[in-house]
Amino acid sequence: MSDAESYEAIPWPGQSASLFSSVRPSPQPSVAPPSSGEVSALAAHLADHLGEIAEDADALAFEHVESFNLLCVGESGLGKSTFLRNIFAHLDPTKLHEVRRRVAAQADIVQSLEDVIARNEHESGHAQCDDVRALALREERTLLKAKRGEALQTLEDLKLAKRTQEHAVGALRSEIGVLASRIKELRGRRDAEEDDDVAAELGRQVIELQGERKAKEALLTSELRRSNLDKESDGGGGGGQTTDVVERLIKEMPLYDGARQGLDVTLIDTPGYGDLLVDTPGRSSADKVVAEVERRISVHLAQEVASRDDMPLDEEKKLWNGLVHLCLFFIPPHRMKRADVELMQRLHTLVPLVVVIAKSDTMTTEETWKFKHQVCDQLKQHVSTFRFNERSIKEVEQLHAEHAVDTFQPLYGGADGSLPWAVMGADDSQREYIWGTAITNEPRHSELPALRDLLLRAGGWQQLKRDAALKADKEAARRAKATLPPRRWGSELWRGTRVGAEGLLSSRLLSPLLAVLALVAALVVALTVRDAFHKEMSSVLTLEQQLEALGRDLSSCSQARDALDRASSAAKAERMLYERKVAMLEDDWNECTQVRKALEIDLQAIKTTPKPPLAAATERQARAAASGLEGWW
Fold first, then answer.
1. Residue pair 330/76 in contact by the 8 Å Cβ criterion
2. Burial track 284-302 (b if 16+ CB lie within 10 A, e otherwise)
């Protein structure tokens, strides 16, 4: 697959922050679509039913879910809490998603009860089952069937609630669409009307319909309201100042709209430093942040037993660990302070660190570019920051440029991907100014969409989780080295032996024979100490050689892993392309089916209509056309 094809094969969602269309428009079908008068009510009903089944089947469960933890750190007043509410706003599961997930979970419960009942019946019919065991199995089966009945009733209630909400959402969307079409029609008539009184009346009707449309859109927003991360939720949300470390969980958040892979995202908000009320002596905000990071590392390193029944400890620590996988460090626009660099130095060895410039909409393009390079130059010698994959950055840049309305050539992260990211956040995804509106989800206004696409769609979250695990292992090695006692027993023994020998030699009361014996003993001890020292040095050299070999093996494994990741990404992209082609073919098939049914109904109506005596030739032509159509179909 070429690079161009791989770019086009990525199904960017219509509701993504980058405002990309999730599926390319389907090409025109081989048969022209029928008008509303040509399609029968039965065919339309069948098409709606098939669409409902497809939607229901596609929304049941994810193929894979694992954890991802994001930490926001920075000075007070930079909008970290607002940013956390805004970054995944379009992907936070809705009420409808929650209902569908509950249906899937209840269906799993019913299936498990069915399996247990089947095994019970199989054992009851076995030849080795005695009468006592058969009676116990029958009683157990009776209880299981009762539980199955209750589970089935619960499942039906959940399905009914799901269908009711789906129909309500569909009806609201349909009504909004009708109102939009009506408003467009009235506007056209108003603009073309020459009579001022008639035009004014049409304008008033447009205003009334706009009010009705806004009311229905508000109702639709309420039905699709996010389930996990609303602004009025408890635990630090709603615009209040964050005074302590706060966590929010987005359970089963899809990587993009329609994805079958999701993440349990934990958003960790921290108190800002430099605030008179929050950052007080004895309760330093920076100390709280470092303590939270170290606590998570300690919990990860101390875990010795798996908490999940369906996976071993190693796999659980890889997929469901509590480490901080990404630390977004917020710095103010136009300047970076010494406190920022000092806290970065405490964190960059513990977590993957990405520097973001908050409230970047307060800077011009030239100011932003200069400040980015200043920050990069100041951090080169002191802080190691995380860099996203260069290929992924290029793909995101090209896709953003292709989907821009006008000419737009982004350069995210600079030439080598090391520059900070200029972002902005808002609860309403936009900020109103006198000169215009700055939109958080517009790539020309903010680099938040690029950061989000690199994190989720380009697979940056996997790279971050690996980097976080490596940093945790290095921290474990550093802690183990710090707890080892100093190895100075050899020098102390030699010093004691030397002092003892000098004391013996300086004593005037000892005979020359005792002095000779003392020298011999000192010589023996010195030789023993030397041999022990040489053995210890040889063991140290051996360990260093083994460490170098392990380093080479680790480098080889990393290269092989990167190659596998690239191959996996290419395979996923190709699979997505095939799935889109299949969906396009299914759409064409459904449209052809509707046309055929409409034609059959019209043909049946023609056959049953009485014909005049002089229309024999016309009748023969109709029959020939009908037989030809049936044969072709």
1. no
2. ebbebbbebbeebbeebbe
The per-residue b/e assignment along 82-120, b for 16 or more CB within 10 angstroms, e otherwise, is bbbbbbbbbbbbbebbbbbbebeebbeebeebeeebeeb
- Six token digits for residue 312: 């071993």
* Partner residues linked to 478 by β-bridges: none
Q: Looking at this protein, which amino acid is placed at residue 121?
A: E
Tokens standing for 508?
């005037």
Backbone phi, then psi, for 248, in 5-degree steps?
-130, 140
Number of Cβ within a 10 Å radius of residue 185: 13
Residues 257 and 14: beta-carbon distance below 8 Å:
yes
pTM as predicted: 0.58
Closest to 493 (Cα-Cα) out of 522, 462, 534, 456: 522
Distance of CA 517 to the CA centre of its chain: 78
Which among 226, 322, 308, 317 is positioned nearest to 266, based on CA atoms? 322
The Cα–Cα gap between 584 and 29 comes to 9
CA distances from 269 to 241, 246, 247, 372, 408 (A): 11, 5, 6, 24, 33
CB atoms within 10 A of CB 257: 14
Tell me the three state secondary structure of residue 94.
Answer: strand
pLDDT profile of the chain (633 residues), mean per 10: 38 37 33 38 38 42 84 91 84 73 83 90 82 88 92 90 84 90 90 88 90 86 59 47 88 80 91 86 90 94 86 88 95 92 95 94 91 92 90 88 79 83 84 86 88 90 94 92 66 54 49 73 81 76 79 82 83 83 84 84 79 58 61 50
Contact (Cβ atoms closer than 8 angstroms) between residue 64 and residue 320: no
Query: What's the distance, CA 13 to chain centroid?
Result: 13
- DSSP assignment of 496-530, as one string? HHHHHHHHHHH-TTS-HHHHHHHHHHHHHHHHHHH
Position 40 scores a pLDDT of 37
Which pLDDT score is estimated for 475? 93
Taking each helix axis from N to C end, the angle separating 338-347 and 285-302, rounded to the nearest 10 degrees, works out to 10
- Cβ neighbours around 629 below 10 Å, total: 13
Please report the pLDDT score of residue 455 as a whole number. 92
Q: Which residues contact 119 (CB under 8 A, 6 or more apart)?
A: none
> Would you say 102 and 165 are in contact if contact means Cβ atoms under 8 Å apart?
no
